[in-house]
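Okay, is this right?
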Amino acid sequence: MKPVISFLFTLISFSSFACECISHPFMVQYHQSDFIATAKILKVSGDELASEYRHVDIEIIELFKGEITSSIKEVNVNRNNCGIFTPENTTWLIFASKDSDGVLQIDACSGAQEIKEILYDDKYPNYKKNVEANLSRTLEILSYLKKENLSSTNEYHLTPNITSSCFSYLKGFECTRQTFSVFELTVQKDLSISNIKAVKEFDNIELSSKLFTCIKQNTIINTFKVKQIPTTTKVLIICFFYPAEGEYKSFISFLNL
């Protein structure tokens, strides 16, 4: 996997099967989702060709965010390039958001992914490993946020920006266990950052120290949408560690690649 360093918490567009999606830092995707859970697909109903949406009955396995529900709707893949297909009797990690009517909805860009055995393909030898690693990291983070009761942070959906390329110097380090670290920002009403705390650090002391300095000295809150907030709030930053692979050094990213 070729390293891609994200110096800013920016949005990256990508295209898949003519569907334009936006790749967000993990915590942006987390806060934009009203419902996150692993669930079994029990029944999918609705006209496969004519319906814009299809009704999906689910059985929740583990709830990470939102309220318990027994149904969601999916954008019909036969009617929309960004549609999604969830076969019955399959298991999924679901990221869903409420539509204008308050109904939970998923599509190809929502972040939902099937939990299944990835078959090895000798044409793409790293595909299986990368897909499984992505899912493992996602479930590990969701479990951590749930266990530590951190799901209520960032109620105003603020976006931190790193104003420096300091991540480009955080290459070539080694970590033995942790795949991600967590930092908590205290944001005042005027969107100034009054404190940054390392909540979960990498086990490499030098890497953790340099990463903390990078974030502390170069982080601001994006003010494109709002200029102030009603109350002081907490905002989380999650950084992912990617080990060296072949000729490429290890690196840090805000994206769950």
Observations:
- The helical segments are 26-32, 127-147, 205-218.
- The longest strand covers residues 53-65.
- Residues 34-109 form a domain with the OB fold (Dihydrolipoamide Acetyltransferase, E2P) fold (CATH 2.40.50.120).
- Residues 1-17 have pLDDT under 50 and may be disordered.
